[in-house]
Amino acid sequence: MSNLETRPAEQVCSSGTADDGVQILGAREVPLGGPRAMTVRRTIPQRARSLVGAWCFSDHYGPDDVSGTAGMQVPPHPHTGLQTVSWLFAGEILHRDSVGSLQMVRPGELNLMTAGTGISHSEESPSGARPPSLHGIQLWTALPGTALDVAPHFEHHGDLPVSDADGARVQVFLGGLRRAGQDLVSPATTYSPLVGAQLDLEPGAELHLEIDPGFEHGLIVDSGDVRLEGTPVRPSALGYLGPGRRRLVVAAGAGRPARAVLIGGTPFTEDVVMWWNFVGRTHDDVARARADWMAQIADRPDGSTTYGDGARERRFGQVDGYASGPLRAPVLPDVRLRPRTRPA
User: Distance between CA atoms of 56 and 190, rounded to whole angstroms?
Assistant: First the structure.
């Protein structure tokens, strides 16, 4: 998914610090593409914490009724320096990209796109018959410096590890977790130590997970009454826990089922500059990526866009099959974008 904000804020990214308790981060509502478009609830990045491990972006959306609308429509747009992680609770999304991928994603399946040096893609609700509801979460991970030059590529994984016992279901889509002595390891490619998993709990259930003590973790609650290590985390909020634990307890209230997404990883210590859909290390990285993308785009007389000559061979390639032209990049702010390292 693209960050469709027309005036994206500078993101000075930092892992931040927290005490031994659970830090609660609320979400802010962001209209993608304007006030009439789909609204998402964004928990990271924000001033209090912009990274959880390598996870640098979280947009939680739905459930939205798409039975009488076009649903999700995100035209071709570019990415650098990250992986996009598309995860659904309900509905379908069709992914197209500049390396030739055409892939539907459904609940319980993973679409993982690695931007590396540069890729572009589109996402859309499929035309014709489709589920009436769209509900999910879009996540990004920042690539470490050792992977910034990796060739762009795409993966789809429909068979992911699951543990279902004692009223709690765990499905790991990225990295690995250990539960009751069972290792749950996703086959998806990662470039830094991290984990991503969906947790579903029946009313009153309590889930115990064995975790890496070097990881920090965030729990993004979708629905239900959830407690993380005894601390309530309301729907759409993120509960953060710093490194140092070997076990994690997530509990559901007695009244209704609960669902959440657990993300985590080793604290990301590299400088990160994130603006619009680009992740780099410096202002110049981002400015260069924007200039390269805009060089691929041509304006039509009616004010719409199309691809310019030779776009397919340029840095971000060309997405075929989407109904409209590519997105223009917003104008960079007048000040230089600043990275920030993790506080000591």
Answer: 14
Contact between 76 and 305 under an 8 Å Cβ cutoff? The reply is no
Residue with the two structure tokens 């998993």: 197
Environment class of residue 292 by beta-carbon count within 10 Å: exposed (0-12), middle (13-18) or buried (19+)? middle
Encode pLDDT of 287-315 as tens digits: 999 999 999 999 999 999 999 999 999 99
Band of residue 216 on the pLDDT scale cut at 50, 70, 90: very high
- Whole-angstrom distance, CA of residue 112 vs CA of residue 154: 6
Alpha helices in 237-326 (DSSP H): 283-294
φ/ψ (deg, to 5) at 103: -145, 125
Residue with tokens 């000591």: 344
Q: Which two structure tokens, joined as six digits, stand for 252? A: 């559901």
Q: What is the model's pTM?
A: 0.92
Q: How far is CA 153 from CA 34, 70, 156, 260, in A?
A: 30, 28, 11, 28
> Which domains does the chain possess?
11-265 (2.60.120.10)
For residue 333, the model assigns a pLDDT of 93
User: At a CB cut-off of 8 Å and minimum separation 6, what does 157 contact?
Assistant: 109, 110, 112, 173, 186, 187, 188
Q: How confident is the model over 142-197, as pLDDT tens digits?
A: 999 999 999 999 999 999 999 999 999 999 999 999 999 999 999 999 999 999 99
Q: Which residues of 3-39 are buried (b: 16+ CB within 10 A; e: fewer)?
A: bbeeebebbbbbbbeeeeebbebebeebebeeeeebe
In the predicted structure, residue 13 carries a pLDDT above the cut 80: no
CA dihedral 324→37→174→169, nearest 10 degrees, is -130
Report the distance separating Cα 340 and Cα 14, nearest Å: 6
Residue 220 pLDDT greater than 80, yes or no: yes
Cα distance from N-terminal residue to C-terminal residue, the chain: 33
Separation of alpha carbons 110 and 113, rounded Å: 10
DSSP state of 199: E
